[in-house]
Every structure is written in C-alpha cells, then in structure tokens.
Write a structure and sequence with these properties.
The protein is an alpha/beta fold and 364 residues long. The chain is 44% helix and 13% strand. Helix 8 (167-180) packs antiparallel against helix 9 (184-206).
C-alpha cells in the first residue's frame, strides 16, 4: 500500500537494530584469544624442540637444538666437529689434550691449541661441579657410565648415552647428534659418504673372490691375547677389508683367548691396534709367537694412529682401506691410497687442515 512520500523513505532507511549481546562478554572472548595464542605458542615450541632416543633407550628432549655441549667421548666429539658445530662445544674429554690425537684437535679448534677449552672429565672420571658450571644444555657420555649419567640427570642436565658395538651404531649416533644439533641433513650426508667409501673398498676386495680371504687375528693394546669376536666393530672391519676373523665365531665384543687357541687358529695375518708399548717388531721377535703363520711370513701390522683409525666414528672406512691393503697388497695397484685417505678426511671435516696433519701417518 502506498503510504506517501515520507513513508517510502522510512521503509528504505529503517532504524538500525542493535545486535544481541553475546552471552560470553568481553572477558569470554579474551579468554578464547589467550587459549589460541597459547596453543599456537606451544605448537611453535613443540616444532622447535628436538627429541631422540639414546643407547639406553631413554628419550632425550631439548626445547631447541643444543647450544652448549659438554662431550666427554672423544669419538662423539669427532662427530660434532664433522657436523660443523665446534663453536657449541664448551667441554671436551681430557684425552684430546694428550698423546697423538692432540695435533688433530689443535688443527680443528684454536681453543684446544691454546688450552682454553674446558676438559672436565674423561671416560674414567668426571668432575661433576665443573660440568654443571659450564651450564650445558646437552652432555654426551658413554651409556655404561651409569653413576655419572644419573648424577648429572639429578642435577637437571640432559644426558645422551652412547654405546658403539657395530658400524650401524656409529651411524645411529651421528643421526642422533645431527637431530640434537639441528644438523640432520649434514649428518645424513656424512653417513652416505662413509657408506660410499666402505662400498668402494668392499667392491675391490670382493672381486677377488671369497676363497681369497686371509684369516686374521686382531690384537688389542691391552694385551697380546685380547681380541674381539663376532659382535664387534673389529669383526666388521676385518670382513669389510676382505679378511676372516679367526675368533669371529665367538659372539663377544671383547675377549681374552688362550695362547693354545691362537696357535690352533694359526692366523695368516695379525693386525694390531695402536700400541705405545709394543709394535710389530716385538711380535715378530717374540719366541712365543714363532709358530704362528703370520709371524713366520712377516705379516704383522699395526694401525697407524688412534685418530685416523677410530672404529667408533665415521672414519672407520680409513681403517678398512688400511687393513685391506695389508690383506690384499695387489688389490689396489693403480690407486693413490694416501691421496684417497686425505680426500676422505677433508670431506668428513670440511677442512684440509686435519688431512695435512694425517699425511705423516698414512703410508701407501
């Protein structure tokens, strides 16, 4: 119905209607916003946090990649330098300041050269107060150092426990350190590099056939009759190098054998771990060893040094190549073994400095 001019305008511009007030009120909406912000913040924190399982089976959780690391295992420390996080290391094992490994670490870290990097312990003793004073957000120890691990955890420190029995454990350790330091991609690249070098040696020696696998006795420095069985990095080393561990049938990582058993095994080659007290000449002239084939044929060798022969780091292919060259001296006629070792070290550490230190220990 037509209601006149004024009525028409009234219908086209009705009076505004006030919306109904929310029963939540201002404080209710504020609470919702707070909950959302907290949830988003927690998601961000959770995304930034890192978590791994150590060799004890314990889950280690850090709110962010580690920034202050006390590492009292020399082999794990080597891994941290490979990962390129040396500036985050605030404590090292005392062993890096001693013996043949020191020149290598001096080449890697000026703080070690200058003696300014703290060394609050080792595999056999740890100064708890010194570790705590360094305010680490991560401590790396051997898993079997249970008393020290528990003491540090009671003080609120995150401890990653390590136990290396096979080369795959080395890979697992590196993956974990990569996650804990936010360098997982670098860790995978390093593992791939080690696996590639191991395959290169294996392909060479395996082409010789299974029948040409010399029997080998591995001698630890603790004693002439101390060796390793089938569940060990040593067994993997000898097999990868194209040899056969004469005590590989024993499922032990470390064992002491009887001399009669060794004489019966009659190994063709003896490989000695780095030994400051004895060298191949001692074994070759020791009358107790004169009936062993390896001694009669002069095939007794000693690994060059602890740093480059370390079986508990990704440097283990260096030891494989060295042993393979002893077991199969004619297998690498056209290969510059010294140059290959140096190139591998340089790739691992991203530096030629360490390789230059190692050159004196490498032999063709």
């Amino acid at each position: 119905m037509w209601k006149g001019k004024n009525s028409f305008r009234a219908e086209r511009n009705p009076a505004p209607v006030r919306p109904a007030r929310s029963p939540m009120g201002c404080w209710g909406w504020y609470a919702v916003v707070v909950v959302i912000v907290v949830a988003l913040t927690w998601d961000a924190v959770w995304a930034a946090s890192v978590r791994v399982e150590d060799f004890r089976g314990k889950t280690i959780v850090l709110p962010q990649p580690a920034r202050r690391i006390v590492c009292l295992i020399e082999s794990a420390l080597s891994g941290l330098y490979m990962l390129g996080v040396k500036d985050r290391v605030v404590g090292v094992p005392r062993s890096v300041y001693q013996g043949a490994v020191r020149p290598y670490y001096e080449a890697l870290d000026d703080r070690i050269r200058n003696g300014t990097l703290a060394a609050p312990g080792n595999w056999d003793f740890i100064n708890m107060e010194s570790v705590v004073a360094l305010k680490p957000d991560l401590v790396v120890l051997w898993a079997h150092q249970s008393e020290a691990v528990q003491a540090l955890e009671r003080r609120g420190l995150a401890v990653f426990g390590v136990f290396i029995e096979r080369f795959e454990d080395v890979h697992r350790e590196m993956r974990a350190l990569g996650i804990l330091t936010g360098t997982a991609e670098r860790a995978e690249a390093l593992i791939g590099l080690a696996e590639e070098e191991k395959r290169w040696v294996r392909d060479y020696v395996h082409s010789l056939g299974k029948s040409n696998r010399p029997s080998v006795y591995f001698m630890w420095a603790q004693g002439d009759l101390e060796t390793s069985g089938g569940t060990s990095t040593v067994n993997e080393l000898l097999e990868a190098a194209g040899g056969r561990n004469v005590f590989g049938h024993l499922p032990r990582e470390h064992l002491v054998v009887h001399r009669e058993s060794l004489l019966q095994a009659d190994p063709e080659v003896i490989v000695m771990w780095v030994n400051e007290a004895r060298d191949p000449a001692h074994i070759l002239t020791d009358p107790r060893w004169r009936f062993v084939r390896a001694v009669r044929e002069g095939r007794v060798h000693e690994l060059p040094d602890i740093f480059t022969s370390d079986l508990w780091t990704l440097k283990y292919p260096l030891a494989i190549l060295t042993v393979a060259s002893w077991l199969h001296p004619d297998a690498f006629p056209d290969t510059d073994l010294k140059g290959r070792r140096m190139a591998f070290l340089e790739k691992l550490y991203g530096s030629s400095t360490v390789a230059r230190v190692a050159i004196h220990g490498f032999s063709d």
